[in-house]
Amino acid sequence: MRREWAPLLALLASFVVAGYAALRLLAGNPIGIGAWFVGSAVVHDLVLFPLYAGLDTALVMLLRRRPELATMAGVWWLNYLRVPAVVSGLLLLVWSPLTLRVPEAAYHAASGLSAQPFLPRWLAVTAVLFAVSAATLAMRVAMVYHGGFHRHQVFSGRIHRGSTVHHERSRSSARRR
Amino acid sequence: MLPRWARRAAENLPPGPFRASFWRSPLRGPWFTAVLSVALLPGITLMFLTGLASYAAYNPNLAPGNDTTPDKGLLGSWLPGWPAGPSWLYWVNQGMHVTLGLVLIPIVLAKLWSVLPKLFEWPPARSLPHLLERSSLLLLVGGAVFELVTGVMNIQYFYAWPFGFYQAHYYGAWVFMAAFVVHVAFRLPRMVTALRARSLRRELRTPLSATTVEPPDPDHLVSPDPARATISRRGALGMVVAGSLALLGLSVGQTIGGAARSSALLAPRGQDLGKGPEDFQVNKTAVDAGIGPVDDSWRLELKEAASRSPSVSPTGVSLASMSLSRTQLLALPQHTARLPIACVEGWSTGVQTWTGVRLADLAALVGAAPGASLFVESLQRGGGFGSATLSPGQVRAPDALLALRVNGADLSADHGFPARVVVPALPGVHNTKWVTRMTFQPAAAAQP
Predict the structure, then answer these.
(1) Mean pLDDT, range B183-201, rounded to an integer
(2) Yes or no: domain B300-445 corresponds to CATH 3.40.50.1000
(3) Predicted structure pTM score
(4) A107 and chain B: CB distance < 8 Å anywhere?
(5) Same domain, A58 and A78
């Protein structure tokens, strides 16, 4: 009985502290602050996530439909696109206000500086990220051609045929039998 | 056992993300989530502690005017005063708070990705305890994103909210932490179990071709119908680390300053200003503060608020109040201190060489009591932080100055000409610029 009540009591204690803070948080502008608090989570869950997951899913589905495009000399290249795109996108997500020069006036009033350099800098960082990724991919492809890579480090390219997932499942069901 | 209505709801799932078959990534699972959690647990704890320290650094309990959240009550009335050193204390604290916050963003996003199917549980609540737990998770997720969004916007001067930053970020942190502590208490055992179930070293050696789903888990994080992996688990974790390292590498230079500043390509204070004595970062320009040209008629008004009947020196000058020209201040004993100024926004000026009159010497000049605090007022018109109260310890600190010169040159208008306060380990905005009046007062009678 006591074990069942402990989590409930912990939750209630947490709500007391959160409520004490929330009263002060909301004091100035309950609707505005409440909207930003809930909206932050909603924007992530229902805008940002569907956006990046949707883009990625579309790309993966395209490669599943056109397996001849999915590999270069047996190397699965998708992640050489994903990693620089994710890092560059993340940098833009975090630094978008100054990169897009939205708070330019406030930035200038505080620092005496112009926000003009940030967009070219982000573009340059993005170019470097993609260039490094492309160079790494080219090196791997070259190593495959020269036989320098072990087979297991290279994606087999068997997209439609038996997947490792199913192998493991059949193995475990065999054990059960 | 579930009530009948809940069972019926579970059998009639809405389409799309409410169905387990919608979530097909083979990477989702308790181990993957636990690895991200094990990074967030110390990270978030450190964020809270450095945030609390940053609030304490304003000495909110010394004078109402110092307090950005005066209705805090139990959420900070117990905080101790802030010491006047070591000089790097606020620099390191705030650099860590802001830079770590940036570094945690990719990890938080990955963690939210890893548990997102749980958002679409159906029915949304199957019992009162379940409803309470999910409400707590709303505070947890909403709080985490709210804190990151307000912090990231504030360091870019993007004040688009209908509220003040200090109140929102401070009370928001408490709401979040209340939910965070119970979340950790509830889930820590599950995190430990999940981490033990798989070897990290082995996972880091597993290539894409051998990447498979984790075994089914009671929390249903593991997809019942997984697609073939398109990235290994080590690859996905590597991508998160790459994101964190990119944010770290392209911003930490604005905290370190000096030659490292140019590496902070995307950070607000990553622009190198040059090599001259005044070429370092400014928090508020003279133009923005409404400061016109200050000429020789400027006088520093120095007061001692405690004495009821002004005592008189042998030369007949009232000791309780005096006004000093800049020439007179320069004729007083000058002290030089090498100090950084660190902003709440995480950047710093780097160490600069300040020269001026010790605050302790000014206190002695007007016969202030040894335990007096100091209320400093600026010529600045409008905007925040036009005044600040310094604690007795800060007034006594050997390196606490009313600075007149920096790096061998007279202060520039943007750096606070004719005189500014510089105190070791004090948050940037409390190092008042364009000082016009300084009032020493007994600590108990601190002015708003």
Answers:
(1) 97
(2) no
(3) 0.92
(4) yes
(5) no
